[in-house]
Structure formats: structure tokens, C-alpha cells
Design a protein that fits this description.
This protein has about 300 residues and is α/β, with parallel strands linked by helices. The chain has ten helices and twelve strands. The chain has two domains: about 240 residues, P-loop containing nucleotide triphosphate hydrolases (Rossmann fold, 3-Layer(aba) Sandwich), CATH 3.40.50.300; about 30 residues, no CATH class. The strands form three sheets. It has a six-stranded mixed β-sheet, sandwiched between helices. It has a four-stranded antiparallel β-sheet with strand order 2-1-4-5, with helices on one face. A two-stranded antiparallel ribbon has the order 7-8. A hairpin with a 2-residue loop joins strand 4 and strand 5. The protein binds adenosine-5'-triphosphate (ATP) and magnesium ion. This is Sugar ABC transporter ATP-binding protein.
Length: about 300
């Protein structure tokens, strides 16, 4: 799969100019006297993928916790459809169409796929005293919805725990789409996945975008972000280091921001100042391994 594959199909190439569904203006969050997030501006528009990148502890989870209703911002403003909001529970965010797919998916591993698809929102039939689960309709709907998203599973009766991590992410994405999400937040959906499965998840991120959802895609991986992203936000120590539309930033620049290019150069410089370390003479990682292996007193 190439970088262009998921982008140049039919998704909008440039920001659509549509009004943002979700917006942060100078938003921040302090936990006591720890300032986890500060002065963040972010806009999530329908039919676009907004990527949030950053190293460990950069504030990515804090950012999405504010939007998904788990935490409240302590500075700035948070708007949904242009109206300032302050959610006190994830349920309130969900009622406004903001759905979050967490890495540790809230599924029941031993229950069938279709049961998990409807978990907590089961379809029923019959009048009140004899109301029961409408199993046939749930199975049919889950099957249709998964197919609509291009997800083909052999058997919806199989326990969801038997699916691969990537497939489970896909079911969670299809579920959010079916239950009417307008904004879909994905917290590192590809972090634990191999190359192929990551590709599959990226495909469904693109499918959700093409259905008009605003997607917030949290990731460590600039390559994954660049395959589907329309806008890129790089967090560093709680503030936005970069916020750029796709046509304003290249994959190289994005990778450089993520790798902390400036920081590495500074470290090299610092090492050069330290007496006794000649960085030009430092062996490459490969050489180092070879010489360790050759050392007679090295444990085997
Ligand atoms: N509940 C909390 N109480 C105090 N400090 C917190 C809390 N949650 C996060 N922090 C701090 O806020 C900062 C940002 O954390 P956050 O979890 O948002 O980072 P992250 O970008 O999601 O990192 P990772 O990639 O490791 O998931 C960190 O310094 C963290 O220690
Ligand atoms: Mg996190």
C-alpha cells in the first residue's frame, strides 16, 4: 500500500471549509499543579481525518479525554456545533454524536460478534410483558452494517475474542458509524498491530471519513497519519508544536517533528562537548553488536 492509496480516492484533498463539529480554542487541562495541556486550538470537520501525534506524555490522551467527556478542560473553550460545552460524562458526549474507540475495546470476548455490536443497545420485539431480544434482526443488521463498511467476517456467531485486534477495531468503527456517531475518536488504533492489520484499520478510518464522519486519529506513527490524514497536529509537552493542513506539510517534515530532529542534534552536540567522547568515532549500532559478540568474556 502506498501513501497515496487511501487519500487520492474520493476523500476531500483540501480542508472542505465546512463548519467544525468539534472545536478547541486555547484549551488546556491541569491536574492539580501538573499542566498536561495548554493553549490547544483544534478543529474537527465532517468528512476529514484530524490526526493528533506526539511522544509519550505529550498530552494526546488528555486531549481526547476532554472531547470524549471523561475530563473537563480547565482553560480555554470547547465547542460542539459552535456552542460552548462542558461534558461531565462520556454519555453526554455520545448524545452529541462523539464516539470514542479505546484501545482496550469494551467488548465481551466470549460473546458473538453480533451481540457485541449491539452491546448495551439491544434490539427488542414484542409488547412490554413479553418483550424479548430480536436476535434475527440484530444479526441481520450487524451483518449489513459490517458489509456496508466493507468488513466481511465469515461468521458473526464466532466469539469476538477470536477476531484479530485489527478486526475488532473495525467492528468497533462500524458500530460507532451505525449508532450515528458524527465524530469518531480513535486512540492509537494501530499501535499494537502489524503492518497488514494496520492497513486494514486505516482503510476503515478512510471509510468512516467517506461517510462524512469527522475522525480524530491519535497515533505515534507519522506514516499511518499521513496515509489518511487531512490535518496534522503534533503535541509536545502539552502544547501544539505543529498544526498544518496536508498540503502544508510533507511526510518528511512530519516525521522530523515526531522524531524530535532538533532534540537529537542538540544531544549530539552535548555529547560532543563532554570530554572524552568523540562522537565521530562512536561505532554504529551494528558494529557494537558484532564486537560484543566477539568478546571472549561475554556470557553466552
Ligand atoms: N490523571 C492525571 N493526573 C496527573 N497527571 C496526569 C494525569 N493524566 C495525565 N497526566 C500527565 O499529563 C501529561 C500528559 O499525559 P497524557 O496521558 O495525555 O499523554 P499521552 O500523549 O497520551 O502519552 P502516551 O503516548 O504515553 O499515551 C503527562 O505528563 C502525564 O503524566
Ligand atoms: Mg495516551
Amino acid at each position: 500500500m502506498t501513501t497515496a492509496d487511501l487519500r487520492d480516492t474520493d476523500g476531500p484533498a483540501a480542508p472542505s471549509g465546512k463548519a467544525p463539529v468539534v472545536e478547541l480554542r486555547g484549551a488546556g487541562k491541569s491536574y492539580g499543579n501538573i499542566r498536561a495541556l495548554h493553549g490547544v486550538d483544534l478543529a474537527v470537520r465532517p468528512g476529514e481525518v484530524t490526526c493528533v501525534l506526539g511522544d509519550n506524555g505529550a498530552g494526546k490522551s488528555t486531549l481526547i479525554k476532554i472531547i470524549s467527556g471523561l475530563h473537563q478542560h480547565t482553560e480555554g473553550a470547547f465547542l460542539v456545533d459552535g456552542e460552548p460545552v462542558r461534558f461531565s460524562t462520556p454519555r453526554e458526549a455520545l448524545d452529541r454524536g462523539i464516539a470514542t474507540v479505546y484501545q482496550d475495546l469494551a467488548t465481551v470476548p466470549l460473546m458473538p460478534v453480533w451481540r457485541n455490536f449491539f452491546l448495551g443497545s439491544e434490539m427488542t420485539k414484542g409488547p412490554w410483558p413479553v418483550r424479548r431480544l430480536d436476535i434475527a434482526r440484530m444479526k441481520k443488521t450487524a451483518d449489513d452494517e459490517l458489509r456496508n463498511m466493507g468488513i466481511v467476517l465469515d461468521d458473526l456467531e464466532q466469539p469476538i475474542g477470536t477476531l484479530s485486534g485489527g478486526q475488532r477495531q473495525c467492528v468497533a468503527i462500524a458500530r460507532a458509524v451505525y449508532f450515528g456517531a458524527r465524530v469518531l475518536i480513535l486512540d492509537e488504533p494501530t499501535a499494537a498491530l502489524g503492518v497488514k492489520q494496520s492497513g486494514v484499520v486505516l482503510k476503515y478510518i478512510a471509510a468512516a471519513r467517506d461517510r462524512g464522519l469527522g475522525v480524530i486519529f491519535i497515533t505515534h506513527n507519522p506514516h499511518h497519519a499521513y496515509m489518511v490524514g487531512d490535518h496534522f497536529n503534533v503535541l509536545r509537552l502539552g502544547t501544539l508544536e505543529l498544526s498544518a493542513a496536508r498540503d502544508k506539510v510533507s511526510l518528511e517534515e512530519l516525521t522530523n517533528h515526531m522524531a524530535g530532529g532538533a532534540e537529537l542534534a542538540a544531544l549530539r552536540h552535548e555529547l560532543a562537548q563532554t570530554g572524552g567522547v568523540d562522537i565521530e568515532e562512536l561505532p554504529e549500532a551494528g558494529d557494537l553488536q558484532a564486537s560484543t559478540a566477539a568478546t571472549p568474556e561475554g556470557k553466552s
